[in-house]
Amino acid sequence: MLEALRETAKPPLTTNRSPALPPSFASASSLAPSSNSTLTTTDSSASADAGTSGDAASMTSSVREHVFEGGLRYHAYRAGKYAFPNDESEQIRDDLKHANSLLLSGGKYFFSPVEDALEAGGEVLDLGTGTGIWAVELGDKYPKTKITGIDLSPIQPTLVPENVHFFVDDFEEEWIDPEDKYDLIHLRNTLHSVKDPQALLERAIRHLKPGGYFEASDICFIPRSDDGTLTPSTPYALRDFISYIAAGVRALGSDVYAVLALPDAMRGAGFADVRRATLKLPLGPWPRDPRLRCCGLLTRTVMMEGLRGVSARPLAALGWTPLQIEMFLVDVRKALMDESVHVYFELHVVYGKKPER
Ligand SMILES: C[S@@+](CC[C@H](N)C(=O)[O-])C[C@H]1O[C@@H](n2cnc3c(N)ncnc32)[C@H](O)[C@@H]1O
């Protein structure tokens, strides 16, 4: 909490920024009702922790609230903006995805050539930081660099390296941080939920130092196979599931495949040296290579555990009832366990530089 207290004195990224909450609240999912009703809860210690009073205290307290729907917990600050839950199960999935990305990429925390800047001491902004696992580990690796993570959900730890700071904020709001500030602005597994990627890129390029990098990575959830075990005509409930989720997310205002258009969008926003790395992320333990086999198992676990949380809001947006969703998920679970199809997804990492003046 000391970190958060210290941060309250510093200028926020947007006018609304509030410090993240203690980790103990991350386990409040046990408060969730099992019905489909919506309920908002508040962390009662909020204003005392923040050391603020009056309007500031009530604002701080409101960012610590959570919304419960259908037994799932969601962020309450800018409620409804992000379609997926923030409860413990979702946090574990995010941390497993983090481990999987590192395993798949050979331990890379970023692809942008900013190593020297971070070694020397720079500034990194992690948009949609989630549990903050990437930011915390980066902070450990580069103790001279300051890492700021922001998220709609107050689900970050408080015991973090001194150079890591978290805030509850909406990164799609205007930033009041100085321009030309960051060496790296990072967005992982989150572009699919950005309502206006163009506006975000324009904002990011303003706030990067000349020569600084923007980097975004997302999994492109199109099931592929190189050995013919899955063809376009193979019945595959997981493929149907993904296209329904994509339609639901579109109905909620964003594009799960936005990463495909990102290189052109970045060039259009003025970035130079835009590159894309594409990695094959297996689904299931079918690869012979032990490392990829492990990646495949992790991917399967992450997807299996997320089916309910990922589908609830997007499929409700298409008019599905919870019962229809549950019935459909039976076939999706079977498809996930089907080892006769050798499926992989592409993980796209796209990065580019703000031109030097
Ligand atoms: C799938 S998680 C990824 C977390 C983290 N980047 C990682 O890779 O471990 C996406 C996160 O983005 C956050 N998010 C989505 N839209 C946001 C916004 N407009 N402002 C702040 N956070 C946002 C969500 O709350 C969620 O925690």
From TrEMBL:
Give the residues annotated as coiled coil. none
**One Gene Ontology MF term:** methyltransferase activity
Concerning InterPro entries, the annotation shows:
SAM-dependent_MTases_sf (IPR029063)
Q: Which residues form the signal peptide?
A: none
Q: Where is the composition biased (Low complexity)?
A: 23-58
> Which Pfam families did the record assign?
Methyltransf_23 (PF13489)
Q: Where is this region: Disordered?
A: 1-60
What is the similarity comment for this entry? Answer: Belongs to the methyltransferase superfamily. LaeA methyltransferase family.
Protein name as it appears in the record: Methyltransferase domain-containing protein
Source organism of this protein record: Thermothielavioides terrestris (strain ATCC 38088 / NRRL 8126)
